[in-house]
Amino acid sequence: MTGKTSLESLTFDNVWSRFPDDFFTRVTPTVWRDTRLLDVSPTAAMRLGLEAETIDRGRLTELMSGERLLPGMDPLAQKYTGHQFGTYNPSLGDGRGLLLGEAVTPWGPVDLHLKGAGQTPYSRFGDGRAVLRSSIREYLAGEAMAGLKIPTTLALAVAVNGEKVMRERVEPGATLLRLAESHVRFGHFEWLYQQRRVEDLERLVRHVIDRHRPDLAQSEAPIEAMFQDVVTRTAELIARWQAYGFVHAVMNTDNMSILGLTLDYGPYAFMDRFESNLTPNHTDATGRYAFDQQPGVALWNLTVLGQSLTPLVAVERLREILDSYEPTLQAAYAILMRARLGLETEREEDAQLIEDWLTLLERSRADFHRSFRALSDQDVIGGLSLGDEIQDAGLEGWLERYRERVSVESRSDTERLAAMRRVNPLYVLRTHLAQHVIEAAQEGDAEPLVTFRELLSSPFEARPGMQAWSEAPPRNAPPVCLSCSS
Ligand code: AMP
Ligand code: MG
Question: 270 to each of 103, 224, 278, 357, 433, how far by Cα in Å?
């Protein structure tokens, strides 16, 4: 054992456990029998300064079964509230996850959060458990997002246990060890605002600044600067979701990270064919959280956060800051989409070219990701072919405009296509592939999970023999049914 890279060598500074009493409840994780580790993420291990291969798997299993904590941990459930589907719910909090400890790393603090750790005072009617299906979905989602350079929480490991958990049917229980710079949510601020606790509200803002955004402390008005930071990061996050076809599906304010991370994966989806109003969560009957609603919903959520800051910042200032959301999102989205189309320079006609491309994809029911990749693969023998992906009379006309547009760029075609392949993934976390991985794991085979996790961690690089992992679902396949029951 090399002392430096062992789990035991992590040190903790548990700031949250020093907050006022009602910010949290100390809870000991429930012990689950027969816990078996399925995979450890090297990407996540790096965030702790560890190497996945050298992590003691027995020790990690003990941690994830709830049997034995690491020295310095002080597990607790955080209290927060939030707006769920537009309605305020005062009785939220960590209902099935525990903040085990806040690790100290050279890159700053990292929360270790055990999801599926048993009941807490905030469980309401829930059993405090996580099932294997949802835990694998969240595990892969973090990896896929990190691979696409989209800010996210990221799980270090996923483990199955011997518990039988009742959902729509009986499912194996599991735990997920989730890492995040912070688990502070918009809902933490809403809770204090609703209780008119101005001092504690300010304390929480100071916490976010001191611990996560120390540069903002120098600013003339640090609280305003923090709100501006949240608005900017959220706009940039949503731009990335929109550019990569990701639907979060449960954008409640308790699932919104104060650091602009993608947080709390449930019935999310990366789209297959491009559907602008895709709503993967079948319990979201009105499509409140559909793909094309996400930019507006995030602004609504930011407005709720702004409301919570009204005891500390003038309403006019909050409004001005909120006004920066839309242009920030538009600018970030345009940069991402131009990169995906291989456009280095910026021209007025680009917005139309991008919009027409998406219209073409939607009309022809083409696969979103494979179409971008095919456009980038035009000089690759054995790569994806545009004609196969997009069967539509409009393709030639669009391509003509596109070729004319790229001809004014100074890069060579070869350079442009290579650059496009660095931003247009070949391996995408598609629902049917995740489902395949889940079913194998439920049968005791974790190998597909490991393979898919590896591919998603560097999704741009074509690997021999891995073609099945880049396929779209068969056209007439029934959609996998996703719900909030996770
Ligand atoms: P989510 O939409 O998954 O982020 O969950 C919303 C709220 O319900 C959070 O406060 C969770 O902690 C809680 N919750 C979800 N599932 C369970 C469960 N099985 N047991 C206890 N609490 C849960
Ligand atoms: Mg949540």
Answer: 31, 34, 10, 18, 11
Maximum CA extent, the chain: 65
Measured at the alpha carbon of residue 237, what is the angle toward residues 231 and 240, in degrees to the nearest 5? 145
Amino acid at 325: Y
Q: Sign of torsion, CA 289 279 140 430?
A: negative
Could you read off the pLDDT of 46-91 as tens digits, one per residue? 999 999 999 999 999 999 999 999 999 999 999 999 999 999 999 9
The one catalytic residue among 254, 272, 367, 377: 254
Q: Which of 304, 314, 307 is nearest to 224 (CA)?
A: 314
Residue with the two structure tokens 């073609």: 467
- The pLDDT of 196-216, averaged and rounded, is 98
Give yes or no for residue 457 CB within 6 A of ligand 1: no
* Mean pLDDT across 38-44: 98
Ligand 1 pocket member 92 (CB < 6 A): yes
From CA 165, how far away is CA 119, in angstroms rounded?
13
CB-CB neighbours of 320 under 10 Å: 12
For 435-466, the pLDDT digits (tens) are: 999 999 999 999 999 999 999 999 999 999 99
Pocket test for ligand 1, best of 25, 32, 96 (most atoms within 8 A of CB): 96
Distance in angstroms (rounded) separating the CA atoms of residues 227 and 223: 6
CB 239 within 8 Å of CB 332: yes
